[in-house]
């Protein structure tokens, strides 16, 4: 979950939008939770009209559902949506990999190396049992996948993939567990294949990585 406003002057609405979005993706606001405007106004220190605009923006990402005059609620979680998001992520990420591996230069390789170093460090902490680092790992995980596709030269593709990744991530946060060593091994293999510009190999790893994540989430029993 990245700060999509980094490098720009944030307004109060920007900050609250980011916080509300993060609270939904992290599960702090669980699926189906009613978002009562008066309570949310106090919690996020923002006016009702601005809050409605923010919630409408989140509705366009399918993170909240507008209920007419009754307000808003966090979008429900379902097996069907998880499977659809997994398919969409695979399509977008593998296409971006193809483009990125062709266009990537030494600067791109540097981003991939740095991002893998960070995610591997966060994963070592989790494997040692330090679950307080889960939030760090989530951020580093996305930064690693983002670095790999960052040379695709399509801001639209990157933005769409980012939105799908975050919605997919919400399901992992609901499962409340780290998948362990298989994730670490996938990331190491994906790192090696990226530097070799092995498109077919990297696509195969991403596909397995995403589908294994789906299986892990479904086995948790947290998704209806």
Keywords:
mainly alpha; 9 helices; 2 domains; about 220 residues; three-stranded antiparallel β-sheet; globular; Arc Repressor Mutant, subunit A
Shape verdict: globular
CATH level-1 class of the largest domain: Mainly Alpha
Strand content: under 5%
Mind telling me the C-alpha Rg?
Answer: 18 Å
Number of strands: 3
Report the structural category: mainly alpha
Give the number of domains.
2
CATH topology of the largest domain: Four Helix Bundle (Hemerythrin (Met), subunit A)
CATH architecture designation of the largest domain: Up-down Bundle
Largest sheet: 3 strands, antiparallel
Number of alpha- plus pi-helical segments: 9
Report, as a whole number of angstroms, the end-to-end distance. Answer: 24 Å
Question: What is the element string, with H for helices and E for strands?
Answer: HEHHEEHHHHHH
Could you characterize the architecture of this molecule?
- This protein has helices at residues 12-26, 37-44, 48-60, 79-103, 106-127, 134-149, 155-175, 181-195, 199-219; strands spanning 34-35, 64-66, 72-74.
- Helix 1 (12-26) crosses helix 3 and helix 4 crosses helix 7 (155-175).
- It is mainly alpha-helical and 224 residues long.
- Strands 1-3-2 form a three-stranded antiparallel β-sheet.
- It is built from nine helices and three strands; from the N terminus they run αβααββαααααα.
- The chain folds into two domains: 12-74, Winged helix-like DNA-binding domain superfamily/Winged helix DNA-binding domain (Arc Repressor Mutant, subunit A, Orthogonal Bundle); 79-219, Four Helix Bundle (Hemerythrin (Met), subunit A) (Up-down Bundle), CATH 1.20.120.530.
- Residues 1-7 have low confidence and may be disordered.
- It is 70% helix and 4% strand.
- It is globular and about 55 Å long.
